[in-house]
Specification:
Number of helices: 9
Radius of gyration: 19 Å
CATH superfamily of one domain: Ribonuclease H-like superfamily/Ribonuclease H
CATH topology of one domain: Nucleotidyltransferase, domain 5
Oligomer: single chain
Distance between the termini: 11 Å
Structural class: alpha/beta
CATH architecture of one domain: 2-Layer Sandwich
Largest sheet: 5 strands, mixed
Strand content: 5-15%
Shape: globular
Number of strands: 5
CATH class of one domain: Alpha Beta
Strand order of the largest sheet: 3-2-1-4-5
Helix content: 40-55%
Length: 234
């Protein structure tokens, strides 16, 4: 049975919708910035249309990216790096937890109100349920992580050390740039949704530019862009 296209009831072409979603999620642009850039290309839409498109198609695109990459991620689960960063929602402090593998792939993003043992345990169980159990878990010296590791029996796999967790800490930087462009968040649900979608899109286009030649980087970038244009195809 042929799967119906999710764009079938929209007058705008799928290539324009994918472009708008990519520009908004991947780059630190506001909704009105995306509206202006598309207007320069002769595409006249409202910034509220961009908001509607990313809310509707962003999670669908992210789910398809995760589905295509899940086997590759499971095959490289020998070393994870965990870190948390505070994010303000309506002026209240919340915590965004992130698990990153040794290659810089963001495995999981999870928002909690606290960073105690209960929150760390829930985040670890959610990550392991989706991606399997790693051989090594690198964390900072937050006591909540150590307590959660002891509960699930992974205390012997935990590693801590100065600068050992830098890759996980650096993984917050692209999200921080997007957060500033979006003027922060008003609801936890929106934060969780955008963090998950942003992580998948970042994984898709992340090429580790400093670790490969210019020719290989251009080839990988073209392949990622071509694959993006084929997402959610009928």
């Amino acid at each position: 049975m042929t799967q119906r296209s999710p764009f079938r009831y929209f007058k705008t072409g799928p290539e324009i919708i994918r472009l708008a979603v990519m520009m908004y999620i991947r780059f630190p642009l506001s909704l009105r910035n995306v509206e202006d850039l598309l207007h320069e290309r002769g595409i006249d839409i409202s910034h509220e249309t961009v908001r509607f498109w990313w809310n509707r198609f962003g999670p669908m695109i992210a789910a398809e990216i995760r589905k295509r990459r899940i086997e590759e991620i499971r095959s490289s689960n020998w070393r994870w790096l965990l870190d948390e960063v505070f994010v303000k929602v309506n002026g209240e402090r919340h915590y965004l937890w992130r698990a990153v593998d040794h290659e810089g792939e963001v495995l999981e993003s999870y928002v909690t109100k606290r960073r105690d043992r209960k929150a760390a345990l829930k985040f670890l169980r959610k990550s392991m349920r989706c991606h399997g159990s790693p051989k090594v878990l690198v964390t900072d010296k937050l006591r909540s992580c150590g307590a959660a590791m002891r509960v699930i029996g992974n205390a012997d796999k935990q590693e801590t050390g100065r600068w050992a967790n830098n890759r996980a800490e650096n993984s917050h930087q692209p999200f921080r740039r997007r957060e500033r462009a979006m003027l922060r968040f008003r609801r936890i649900r929106t934060l969780q949704k955008f963090a998950s979608v942003h992580a998948s899109v970042h994984n898709h286009f992340n090429q580790e530019r400093a670790l490969c030649s210019r020719q290989k980087f251009r080839s990988n970038r073209s392949a990622a862009l071509a694959e993006w244009r084929g997402l959610l195809a009928a």
